[in-house]
Amino acid sequence: MAASWKSYRDRLDLKIVTKVPDSLAIVDTLKKSSPCVIAVDCEGVSLGPTGPLTLLQIGTWTGKVYLFDIQSNKDLIKKGGLKELMESKCVLKVIHDCRNDSGALYHQFGVRIENIFDTQAADTVIKSKLSGQLPNQVPKISLDALCDEHGSTTNPLKDKIRNVYKWNAAYWSFRPLTDEMITYASYDVLGLVPVLYQALNRLLKPEWISLFKDLCVDKILTYIEPNAVKERTRIFRNKADPNFRNNWWRNSNRRHGTNGLKRLQGNSSGGMNKWHSDRKNQSK
2-283: what fold? Predict the structure, then answer.
């Protein structure tokens, strides 16, 4: 078994980042990449608004992985450029079910992630439209299962580390990072780009993009504006009219004024519109 871990580890084009100057240099390179699309994931101790974020992973279009060790150096977020990268409207972040990641980044570091392509949200929209179900009726799929459906890289350690974590919630706070931790964290971003992103991007029809953007915003705001998201989800759940969601947005904006929902929708539109205009080129 040990040999198999070693073989998975040795396949990785990997850099572990603990120093601010290194982080700044990597972020600068990522912002200049083409296509400007990265995979993002986070690990932590019961990760969420109050569950500490200890590791931030980024995967590139060419298969390189960066592990930013936040547990060892929290300055990587703000001084190391990760906040700027996560909030950039020019860099598309491909991520799977970003609710806990977004909640942790916002409440612990003041980072409001922007311009995302949430693969779970994309899968929900596609299956909702093809099946005639409402989005809340579509079962939420795991990243590994979604990668398997679309022929992308799966995580060879998913079941093992999930079982370890179940018995030891502090697992992602241990340092130094072990080969198992490094391999698991790396494969959680390797599957996102380019294969999974391209597959879902091709399946999303232009007329579905508005709903997809709404669901991405819901994911981001789940632990930032929870009451507003719950209200909008509750009302939409009981409405089969596809135009209702857009009407609700307009009414919500009038009721809440310039609250977080309105601000984020407005702030995100530039990045998401850029993604929409570039999606044919990125799918090639």
Answer: Nucleotidyltransferase; domain 5 (3.30.420)
